[in-house]
Specification:
Blueprint: E1 4-9, E2 15-22, E3 28-34, E4 40-44, E5 47-49, E6 52-58, E7 65-71, E8 74-75, E9 80-81, E10 96-97, E11 134-136, E12 159-162, H1 164-168, H2 182-185, H3 188-197, E13 201-204, E14 208-210, H4 214-218, E15 229-235, H5 247-261, E16 265-270, H6 287-295, H7 320-335, E17 341-344, H8 347-350, H9 362-369, E18 377-380, E19 399-403, H10 404-414, H11 422-428, H12 432-435, E20 445-447, H13 457-460, H14 496-515, E21 519-523, H15 556-574, E22 597-600, H16 609-612, E23 618-623, E24 628-631, E25 637-638, E26 643-648, E27 654-657, E28 666-672, E29 685-687, E30 691-694, E31 698-705
Parallel strand pairs: 12-13, 12-21, 13-16, 16-17, 17-18, 18-19, 19-20, 20-21
Antiparallel strand pairs: 1-2, 2-6, 3-4, 3-7, 5-6, 7-11, 8-9, 10-11, 14-15, 22-23, 23-26, 24-25, 26-31, 27-30, 28-29, 28-31
Pfam families: Alpha-amylase, CBM_48
Biased composition (Basic and acidic residues): 467-483
Region (Disordered): 467-496
């Protein structure tokens, strides 16, 4: 204990490293140490305790590279795939030196066997050590005593999804040698943009050590997003500016500290559902060679892998050693690396017991009782690709969820594709139909219109069809369900009317997202009009297609969009009625009889049940700031201004009659997305009961004055 490689000084004063590896069914384990010239020294681990092979090696310190060779039977027909010719990465490695290039030697079977249907049964005895990265011993006694975590409450959170490399790669104010790295993200120029926007947390696309898929390498491409993990404790070495023999650990921590100092939390997108070893025809990099049957879900035919992820394999989370690997990794990133939460890729795959998704599964039960993990932010991507995998709204308390029903409803409303307005009503007010159970709150819903997977926001209003030809898969990859509208022309155009319409739609979508109840999530660059040229699956585009183009801020139009985003976020931060901690009751909350939430038609009348079942392009949403549930920091009542939001998705202007008393005597116009120039607040006063002309495709936000 603990698993992995840990430097220490023994009771006899001798310094060295203790190595410990779980390998349940193995017959023998060799520790392989590598010097600076790459010369390998093999040391058998002779101590075996509770299926853990371990030993203390004097004189081995920080920076030493190592790996394992695990001996056992080669019997793929029973799921046994041990092959000691393959050097294996320590699952608990805290740093990795080198990159995976996947030549034939790194496969446990003969990759190029003529009969591919049985290739996985033919053992390859070539040594893989010269061709694979090595784990690195890391010595770090940092206790984080001076770090101050922001600890932003969920209801006050605004998430900004970004890619460490892509966010900083083209930033002109970051030194070239730091661009695309953890140090680049820690640079004042990068953090300054985040602070000006007003986001409270960055959600980093995967930073666990990952490998590139063979089919991408053959096409000269690389896995850019990083959803192909192989080292759950190691910061991805490719994002380090300072070095890869342990320096990446310190650099990552410095990045976290810099973000914390700016009041910004760090959330990691983590991929514990599968690994980079893929299916039975995949490479042998780590877990497959340590204990294939102990780590992976196998089918009834043990040669084959159960695949609930679409990536070839699924980790067998029911197994205690797998559950321990995941929870040890999570605790490590919280306690030793300083992160504040996690977004779990394909979380439904982790919640499967034997086959079905089970909200009482071991994984969810362990998280719920863990004294460290239950205190951090936990976000589920609440689906996988297996039967019964779609679980939006089903995760237990403590968890928040990516709400794709919010995404779909908002996209459909603004493109005029909703059959009625029931769904959009729920989505704008926290999705109580999904989350108002078990003590869950509106912030259980992470609202988003776009994510890394799919169109950027600009592409959503510029393309209706995907354009993924650059991925080399014949445009077959990526979803066809884009729910997009291009404004009358596919792709970029010089038509000024189309471009003006697209920018207005961008303002509408961003404003809707940031005013909705729940936790908003922005994607890096959407606030400045980033485009991927219609590619809705840019997972393999490590180039200008995916990197954030900071020169967009030199265009006044895109700069105004950024300023609007910051302005709406500032409004959200100032007004608790826009970030409620409890669901709306729809009943009077004050002696004057005003309800906390009311809906209005364009005629200024309250919506009836029939109105909810009818098509409509115009909605009025009244949010009362009186007697908001909860208490302030001093225990006093929470009160705020009241607001009326008008969402008008039709292309024609309409006259919206503002609700008069008791709702309001007068309204002050705060936001108007029909205006190109958003640098100043409109500030115009409008009496209640009068008709206000709303331009086509516009969001208005009015504050109750007086």
């Amino acid at each position: 204990m603990p698993l992995g490689a840990r430097f220490r000084v023994g009771p006899d004063g001798v310094a060295g490293t203790n190595f410990a590896l779980w390998a349940g069914g193995a017959e023998a384990v060799e520790l392989c140490l590598f010097d600076e010239r790459g010369t390998e020294t093999r040391l058998p681990l002779t101590e075996l305790t509770h299926e853990i092979w371990h030993g203390f090696v004097p004189g081995v310190g920080a920076g030493r590279r190592y790996g394992y060779r695990v001996h056992g039977r080669w019997d793929p027909w029973t799921g046994a795939r041990w092959n000691a010719a393959k050097l294996l990465l320590d699952p608990y490695a805290r740093a990795v030196d080198g990159s995976f290039t996947l030549p034939p030697e790194v496969y446990g079977h003969v990759r190029d066997w003529p009969e591919q249907h049985v290739a996985d049964t033919v053992r390859d005895d070539r040594d893989s050590a010269p061709h694979v990265p090595k784990a690195v011993v890391v010595h770090d006694d940092d206790d984080w005593a001076e770090d101050r975590r922001p600890k932003t409450p969920w209801a006050d959170s605004v998430i900004y999804e970004l890619h460490v490399r892509g966010f900083t790669k083209l930033h002109p104010d970051i030194p070239p040698e730091l661009r695309g790295t953890y140090a680049g993200l820690a640079h004042p120029a990068a953090i300054g943009h985040l602070r000006r926007l007003g986001v409270t947390a960055v959600e980093l696309l995967p930073v666990h050590q990952f490998a590139h898929e063979d089919h991408l390498l053959r096409r000269g491409l690389h896995n850019y997003w990083g959803y192909n993990s192989i080292g759950y404790f190691a910061p991805h070495a490719g994002y380090a500016a300072s070095g890869t023999t342990g320096q990446q650990v310190g650099e990552f921590k410095q990045m976290v500290r810099a973000l914390h100092d700016a009041g910004i939390e760090v959330i990691l997108d983590v991929v514990y559902n599968h690994t980079a070893e893929a299916g039975e025809l995949g490479p042998m990099l780590s877990l497959r060679g340590i204990d294939n049957r102990g780590y992976y879900r196998l089918q009834q035919d043990p040669r084959r892998y159960a695949d609930y992820t679409g990536c070839g394999n699924t980790l067998h989370v029911v197994q205690p050693q797998v559950l321990r690997l995941i929870t040890d990794s999570l605790r490590y990133w919280v306690t030793e690396m300083g992160v504040d939460g996690f977004r779990f890729d394909l979380a439904a795959a982790l919640a499967r017991s034997m086959h079905d998704v089970d909200m009482l599964s071991p994984f969810l039960a362990v998280i719920a009782q863990d004294p460290v993990l239950r205190r951090v932010k936990l976000i589920a991507e609440p689906w996988d690709v297996g039967n019964g995998g779609y679980q939006v709204g089903a995760f237990p308390p403590l968890w928040t969820e990516w709400n794709d029903r919010y995404r779909d409803a908002v996209r459909d409303f603004w493109r005029g594709a909703l059959p009625d307005v029931r769904d959009i009503g729920y989505r704008l007010t926290g999705s109580s139909d999904l989350y108002a159970w078990g003590g869950r709150r509106p912030y259980a819903s992470v609202n988003f219109v776009t994510a890394h997977d799919g169109f950027t926001l600009r592409d959503l209003v510029s393309y209706e069809q995907k354009h993924n030809e650059a991925n080399g898969e014949g445009n077959r990859d990526g979803t066809d369900d884009n729910r997009a509208w291009n404004g009358g022309a596919e792709g970029e155009t010089d038509d000024p009317d189309v471009n003006a319409l697209r920018r207005r739609q961008l303002r509408n979508l961003l404003t809707t997202l940031l005013l909705s109840t729940g936790v908003p999530m922005l994607v890096a660059g959407d606030e400045m009009g980033r485009t991927q040229g219609g590619n809705n699956n840019a997972y393999c585009q490590d180039n200008e297609v995916s990197w954030l183009d900071w020169s967009l801020l030199e265009d006044p139009g895109w700069r105004e969009l950024t300023e609007l985003t910051a302005r709406v976020l500032a409004l959200r931060h100032r007004h608790p009625v826009l970030r409620r901690r409890a669901f709306f009751a729809g009943t009077p909350q004050a002696p004057d009889g005003l309800r906390d939430l009311a809906w209005f038609t364009a005629q200024g009348t309250e919506m009836t049940e029939g109105d909810w079942y009818a098509p409509a392009a115009t909605l009025g949403l009244y949010l009362s700031g009186r007697d908001i549930p909860g208490r302030d920091a001093r225990g006093g009542p929470v009160t705020d201004d009241s607001f009326l939001a008008v969402l008008h998705a039709d292309h024609r202007p309409c006259d919206f009659r503002l609700p008069g008393p008791p709702w309001a005597q007068t309204y002050e116009l705060v936001l108007d997305t029909s205006r190109e120039d958003q640098s100043t607040e409109p500030g115009t006063l409008h009496p209640g009961g009068t008709a206000l002309t709303v331009e086509g495709r516009t969001v208005l936000l009015l504050r109750v004055a007086g």
